[in-house]
Design brief:
The chain is built from six helices and ten strands; from the N terminus they run H-H-E-E-E-H-E-E-E-H-H-E-E-H-E-E. It has a domain of 161 residues: Electron Transport, Fmn-binding Protein, Chain A (Pnp Oxidase, Chain A, Roll), CATH 2.30.110. By secondary structure, it is an alpha+beta fold.
Length: 247
């Protein structure tokens, strides 16, 4: 690989993938990009049909410097992508936690996200079968060894596409809330911290009897949210709901 090719494969290295909104959250690491893609299960792909944009959720897998995904041969949208003439955008987002500030405006989410731009390539023959196996084993490791191989008719009914990672971007948010200083002086607001990681809220009290799906919570507790949807390896959850509120 030439130096120019290496630069092109670095996330955020092209004019189209440079992050302008909060650029401090941009991550220029192909290693981090690959880790995010390897942890996710669902990607969203853009297709433009007769001037109308559509977004399709797809199962996918990363194979070296490509993202593999598939759909029905009967789908008009996948047929568009399979022409090799339409550029697309594929994105994967992992939700790591909800960040609760003392105002709705400053509340946020902690996430890791990847965006990929390019023109998908239609796969066929052995390359197509290998891609189907890669996707199956990504969703459930070694599943391919426990199922029968796809028939010729089943493969014919499936479009498998490959999208190069040569043009991509990575954006990550971590940490706690960024409250307005004046909000920190007001002791009125008492919601809990809700997170799947080490994110903490700046809030120090919760109203008595606050209840959610995980039960009654107290200040600085970690309330589990469903981060397993779209993420095989969700962040570890530590239950500290029995801690006493701090005044």
């Amino acid at each position: 690989m030439t130096v120019k090719q290496e630069v092109e494969r670095t996330p955020g290295s092209t004019a189209r993938t440079k992050i302008h909104r909060i650029p401090d959250r941009a991550v220029h690491s192909s290693v981090v990009r690959d880790e995010i893609l390897d942890a996710g299960l669902v990607a969203h792909v853009v297709v433009i049909d007769q001037g109308q944009p559509f977004i399709i959720p797809v199962a996918y897998a990363r194979s070296d410097d490509d993202v593999l995904f598939h759909g029905s041969s009967a789908s008009r949208l996948f047929k568009q992508l399979a022409t090799g003439e339409q550029s697309t955008c594929l994105s994967v987002t992992l939700l790591d936690g909800l960040v609760l500030a003392r105002s709705a405006f400053e509340s946020s989410m902690n996430y890791r996200s990847v965006m990929v731009l390019g023109i998908p390539r239609l796969l066929a023959g052995h390359e197509k079968t290998a891609a189907l196996r890669r996707i199956s084993d990504h969703l459930l490791p070694d599943r391919w060894n426990d199922i029968r191989p796809p028939t010729a008719q089943e493969e014919k009914a499936t479009i498998v596409l490959s999208l190069s990672l040569a043009e991509s971007s990575v954006k990550v948010r971590t940490g706690g809330p960024e409250d307005v200083p004046s909000d920190l002086e007001d002791p009125v607001y008492p919601p809990p911290t809700i997170t799947t990681s080490a994110v903490t809220s700046s809030l120090r009290r919760v109203p008595s009897g606050l209840f959610n799906a995980a039960g009654t919570v107290s200040a600085h507790s970690a309330v589990k949210i469903d981060a397993t949807v779209g993420c095989r390896r969700a962040p570890a959850f530590r239950d500290s709901a029995n801690q006493e509120p701090q005044s």
